[in-house]
Amino acid sequence: MKIKTEHTFCRICESLCGLEVDTIDNKIVNIRPDANHITTYGFACPKGLKQHKMYDSPDRLSSPLIKKNGEWCKSSWEKTLKEIGEKVKKIIKEDGPNAIGMYVGTAAGFGVLHPIFAQGFMDGIGSNNLFSSASQDCSNKFAVSQRMYGYPFTLTFPDILNTDFLIIVGANPIVSKWSFLQVPNPSLHLKNILKKGGEVVVVDPRKTETAKIAKSHIPIRPNTDVFFYLSFLNELIRINQIDKSWISNYTTGFDELFELAKRWSGERTESLTGIPTAILKDVVKKFHSAKRASIYCSTGVNMGTHGALSFWIQECINIISGNLDKEGGALVSKGIIDFPSFGKKNGRLLRSDKSRVHSFHSTNDAFPGGLLADEILTRGNGQIKALFVTGGNPLITMANSNRLREAFSSLELLVTLDIYPNETGSIGHYMLPCTSPLERPDLPFIFPLMLGLQTKPYLQATKSMIEPQGEQRDEASIYLDLCKYSGVNIFGSWTGQKVLEIFSFFNSIYSKKKQKSIPQEFLLNLILKLSGQKGFKSLLKHKSGYELDSHEAGTFVPDRVLTDDKKIALAPHDLLEEAQNLDLFFQEELEAIQEYRLITKRDVTTHNSWTHNIDEFTKGDRYTNYLYLNPSDAEDLSLSFKDLAKVSTDIGSIVLPVKITNDLNKKTVAIPHGWGHQSTSMKIAKNTSGVNVNILASDGIDSLERISGMSHLTGIKVKIERFQGDFAPNSWSGLKEEQLEVPQILQ
Ligand SMILES: Nc1nc2c(c(=O)[nH]1)N[C@H]1C(S)=C(S)[C@@H](COP(=O)(O)OP(=O)(O)OC[C@H]3O[C@@H](n4cnc5c(=O)[nH]c(N)nc54)[C@H](O)[C@@H]3O)O[C@H]1N2
Ligand SMILES: Nc1nc2c(c(=O)[nH]1)N[C@H]1C(S)=C(S)[C@@H](COP(=O)(O)OP(=O)(O)OC[C@H]3O[C@@H](n4cnc5c(=O)[nH]c(N)nc54)[C@H](O)[C@@H]3O)O[C@H]1N2
Ligand code: SF4
Ligand SMILES: [Mo]
């Protein structure tokens, strides 16, 4: 048997690690890091190297499934699509196009054609009821960028190759491998900054893996980052020689910003943030005196109650310190095209409509996920009756999972496009099997591709490594067919639909593939060619990536600032207005300083909700998630290692075993998300005993971050007690106790 080795790149997280894949007879037998890759230099993590085991699993979706009388039955594509199409037509006729909703999950973003065609389907339907995982992780950044720079996709990033001083707030790149920036091998890059005499400071409630490498950690009380940022800005303005002419030439709103920052000195905020003023002043001084510095944040800040205000002030810090658009500071680059200019001109991602329930504005053309249950459960014109879930698992990853379960169960039609029968799919009506990343050709993730969010710019193309072994199809082709059977046109274009159908027909004859497919490589080539890049085939020849021009500092301001007056808005009015509510919040939080706050935590072997069906990742003590807490809190609560703790909020309770760690401060506890798989048919995941932490998080209008609609998933108020029962009545699933299988390990 002959081993065939080919090059590709991983499409699980933003690192996009270069990989070498060995196949025998259309089966992947081994995956290695690509040592010659142009930026990832032989780096990869266990998830990327074991991914074929997830895709090879007998539990994987291999043919379309229809639920009949509560049982899942295999079906043909034709029959399934026809049935779905008929239901869509009926719902549109009776309730209008907005009765069809869609949730786009994080996996969708890792294919180039998937999100484009999913949007094309919604355009065809004429529905605005689009939701995405962005309001669980990053909508605050889009909302603020739109207000400050004029477009949601104008995103700054730290130039980590050239920086002397980097502050990381609420991110743990050593585990997550960075977000909103492609940083292959974060550990190497952080160590390089230190080696060159630079500094890295981590602001995080937990002494994280990143903090340990950075060697400089500032612990912070969860969900108080906005005060850290304001006090930072306050001190920076106090000591900084501000370049007044630059500020007045290229920005507006400095005086209003100054007035706000003045009110939040380090002395005032230290009682809540837990950051002593002397430490704050020291870090600001170092930041200010470093030649090239920047401050970056991620989900630990984004998912708090003030993600938008925090990110706004962070951007102002980079700007006022003179680090924006500067080598080694915070850059705004370009991808294969200047996407923000293109998008702004064509009105993309700029919808200004409001949700039906609670009239909340959209961000990046999507409504907050925290309103999805309301939109499904609230009667009236435009009520969502059907939901398409594409590359996501909202039942586990969104706030208030029990309420979502109730909402999803009431839908007339719930269709998932996934590689697995996940929790969301399991309570739905149709599950459509999709190709895995290694079974489709692709280009990099949209951020590096279109926005240049990369440490070192490069392009790479990959063909599919193997053909699907079952009846899996790529999502773009599925959406084209869903349009056809639903009597609508993809992107709302009759010509587009017909042309793509003809392409698809001939491609299927020509390529002799088992499943009908649009010519994916042809379309990817078209995207490249329209952007003036090398074609797909010639990129394939650069097996380990093709280097592009380096980032160019000094090209963003003012030419690519897209506000009406071409100036950066330092004090957008609604952000300023929202900041007026901070006094009350500060007082309330101060009074609650003795309460527990629950934060999130990611592990190397789990990826949100979908890597729990691999033996190696769930072995030993990885069979569950844990409640992590500080030894002194454990003592107060009479809890020891592996005791069961009950964690509750006003919304729900979960029970899980305890791990004790010195990495957390008193009154800060952590629970990893993505668990709670006991109700699926995934045999390995089903036998894990982890619980879904999002049962504790609340949804609905009052729980949303008011600027961007972000859900509040970290820093949430919890009560903890020792669990007294024999076994946890895991309320994660809404199942009764007698319906639960007791995991062996806890018996
Ligand atoms: N408490 C808490 N909650 C959180 C977070 C947290 O830190 N704490 N993190 C949040 C974050 S950052 C995010 S992004 C969201 C994620 O929210 P979701 O996107 O809803 O969840 P995932 O678990 O990433 O779901 C991805 C799904 O895509 C499927 N999949 C994988 N590859 C493919 C593919 O190629 N095609 C298709 N069609 N499907 C595929 C997987 O099987 C899985 O079911 O969750 C958020 N939820
Ligand atoms: N192994 C693994 N890698 C992943 C993922 C995964 O699930 N597993 N998910 C991927 C996805 S979808 C994303 S979006 C990225 C996210 O990438 P990151 O944003 O880097 O995510 P985390 O690793 O969760 O880091 C968040 C940090 O915020 C801290 N934190 C929590 N609450 C607070 C707070 O109130 N204030 C401050 N300052 N910090 C706080 C946590 O302790 C944690 O260290 O990771 C991606 N990579
Ligand atoms: S770090 Fe991310 S991109 Fe790299 S191998 Fe792991 S999962 Fe894949
Ligand atoms: Mo995410």
What is the CATH T-level topology of the domain at 159-333? Dimethylsulfoxide Reductase, domain 2
Low-confidence parts, pLDDT < 50 over ≥5 residues? Answer: 729-747
In the CATH scheme, the class of the domain at 159-333 would be Alpha Beta
Structure classification: alpha/beta
Q: What percentage of amino acids are in beta strands?
A: 5-15%
Bound molecules: ligand MGD, iron/sulfur cluster, molybdenum atom
Shape: globular
Give the integer mean of the pLDDT values.
95
Mind telling me the CATH superfamily name of the domain at 159-333?
A: Dimethylsulfoxide Reductase, domain 2
Oligomeric category? single chain
Based on the model shown, name its key terms.
binds iron/sulfur cluster, binds molybdenum atom, alpha/beta, 747 residues, 30 helices, Phosphorylase Kinase, domain 1, Dimethylsulfoxide Reductase, domain 2, binds ligand MGD
How would you sum up this structure, described in words?
- By secondary structure, the protein is of the alpha/beta class.
- Among the domains are: 4-55, Phosphorylase Kinase, domain 1 (2-Layer Sandwich); 159-333, Dimethylsulfoxide Reductase, domain 2; 593-746, Barwin-like endoglucanases, CATH 2.40.40.
- It is 34% helix and 15% strand.
- It has 30 helices and 26 strands.
- It starts with a strand and ends in a 25-residue tail after the last strand.
- Bound molecules: ligand MGD (2 copies), iron/sulfur cluster and molybdenum atom.
- Iron/sulfur cluster is lined by residues 10, 12-13, 15-17, 44-45, 47-48, 177.
